[in-house]
Specification:
By secondary structure, the protein is an alpha/beta fold. The chain has two domains: 210 residues, FAD/NAD(P)-binding domain (3-Layer(bba) Sandwich), CATH 3.50.50.60; 144 residues, D-Amino Acid Oxidase, subunit A, domain 2 (D-Amino Acid Oxidase, Chain A, domain 2), CATH 3.30.9.10. Helix content is 30%, strand content 27%. Strands 1, 2, 8, 9, 10, 11, 17 and 18 form an eight-stranded mixed beta sheet that branches. It has an eight-stranded mixed beta sheet with strand order 5-6-4-13-14-15-12-16, with helices on both faces. Strand 1, helix 1 and strand 2 form a beta-alpha-beta unit. Helix 1 runs parallel beside helix 6, helix 1 packs parallel to helix 9 and helix 3 packs across helix 9. It is globular, with a radius of gyration of 21 Å. The relative contact order is 0.20. The chain binds flavin-adenine dinucleotide. The site of flavin-adenine dinucleotide (FAD) has 43 residues, from helix 1, helix 2, strand 12, strand 16 and helix 9.
């Protein structure tokens, strides 16, 4: 049995970012940080996502969720540069800018309201006159668009690259990451986790953090804690615009909750569906066809772009859209960071900072009360 300073259950972007931040902060750890993953770390939702980083501004008076988003957003360029410096890996961080589009009267109303809220939270949001749209975004079927706003501070990460950089940075700082080790329960003694029971024996640690994404509900039920987290499937289609006449968009194109994300190598990610399908990660003909329709009607030349791949991932959806971040009530040395739904990539940096502060006995710089585990 090993004894670590901190043991993290789940090696998605949340668990790996937290492990990295803890290892950075614990300059001379007594024993270290360990991450256990039941399959391959970083291969679930964190691999499958689109990596969009929506614009956000950190302001002290705002709701803690906006503060977490603002903190995370400010940290992404810093983390990207640091990860590259420490590991040589480019995580694909780019400040691509986003266009938000409406092609129906109802969507125009919804877009105007959303744009008003973004402006009120300090985000730079620019109205795009319809006659200026084609010049700003030549790939777009501009005449079909009734309203558009430009958000220059919207960015992206390339998920597999980011996970690879995090894994390399963790390894460099001595974090032990174990693949294929499933956590099956907890031995609790005198209000503390004494050991974690796994498919490969037990592991003990001073503190434990559960970051097991869409699988968190069943795991926490083993210590009598009920959290409203369930898997919400999202499908993605990857197009390759390397061959003309397909023209990739220059910006991230958003229409409602669906989007096109251009990568630097000419690939375009088209996402995503939102489905309550349990733990099924199959794509469906309807899902893929719907996304192709979106791509072709927004950017007609994408009709010529071959589909390179399609996949689905499981977002850790929470009932109120907020993640669970905080201590497990009644279990002194156990914490949870899970349930980030559609925003886990974006919120991962800020989550790592505030959860590492909490776990190390410091005061988190964002008020975690709205994210409490017993809020329901
Ligand atoms: C299609 C799609 C598009 C998305 N787009 C975006 C986006 O543009 N921007 C954004 O910010 N977010 C996006 N997301 C959401 C984002 O991907 C997730 O919120 C984020 O990846 C959640 O990270 P996680 O570490 O909590 O979960 P995961 O990445 O799922 O990691 C959880 C890990 O825990 C492990 N695990 C589970 N149970 C156990 C156990 N009992 N023992 C050991 N290990 C266990 C799993 O194997 C897994 O590796 C998208 C998601 C999807 C599916």
């Amino acid at each position: 049995m090993t004894a670590d300073d901190v043991l993290i259950v789940g090696g998605g972007v949340i668990g790996l970012s937290l492990a990295y931040e803890l290892a950075r902060k614990m300059a001379s750890p007594a024993a270290g940080v360990r991450v256990l993953d039941q399959s391959l770390p970083g291969r679930e939702s964190s691999w499958a996502g689109a990596g969009i980083l929506p614009a956000a501004v950190l302001r002290s008076g705002d709701h803690p969720y906006l503060q977490l988003a603002g903190l995370s957003h400010a940290l992404h360029p810093v983390w990207s540069a640091r990860l590259r410096e420490e590991t040589g890996c480019d995580n694909g961080y780019r400040r691509t800018g986003g266009l938000h589009l409406a092609r129906t009267g109802d969507d125009v109303r919804i877009l105007r309201q959303a744009a008003g809220e973004w402006r009120a939270s300090g985000i730079d949001v620019r109205d795009v006159p319809c006659d200026g749209l084609a010049a700003l975004e030549p790939a777009l079927d501009a005449p079909a668009v009734l309203a558009a706003v430009h958000v220059p501070d919207e960015g992206q990460l390339r998920n597999p690259w980011h996970v690879r950089a995090l894994l390399a940075a963790c390894a460099r700082r001595g974090v032990v990451v174990e693949s294929g080790v499933r956590v099956e329960g907890f031995q609790i003694e005198k209000g503390r986790v004494k050991a974690v029971v796994t498919s490969d024996g037990t592991r003990s640690a001073g503190r434990v953090c559960v970051s097991s994404g869409a699988w968190t509900r069943a795991l926490l039920a083993k210590i009598g804690l009920s959290v409203a987290i369930k898997p919400i499937r999202g499908q993605i289609v990857l197009l390759n615009t390397a061959v003309p006449p397909a023209v990739p968009p220059r910006h991230i194109l958003n229409e409602g909750s669906r989007y096109l994300v251009p990568r630097t190598d000419g690939r375009v990610l088209v996402g995503s569906t939102e489905e309550d399908a349990g733990f099924d990660t199959q794509t469906t003909p309807e899902g893929v066809t719907g996304l192709m329709q979106l791509a072709i009607t927004l950017c007609p030349s994408l009709r010529a772009a071959p589909v390179e791949a399609a996949w689905a991932g499981l977002r850790p959806g929470s009932a109120d859209g907020l993640p669970y971040l905080g201590p497990v009530p009644g279990v002194e040395n156990c914490f949870v960071a899970a349930g980030h739904f559609r925003s886990g990539l974006h919120l991962s940096t800020g989550t790592a900072v505030v959860m590492s502060q909490l776990i190390l006995g410091l005061s988190p710089e964002v008020d975690l009360a709205p994210f409490a585990l017993d809020r329901h």
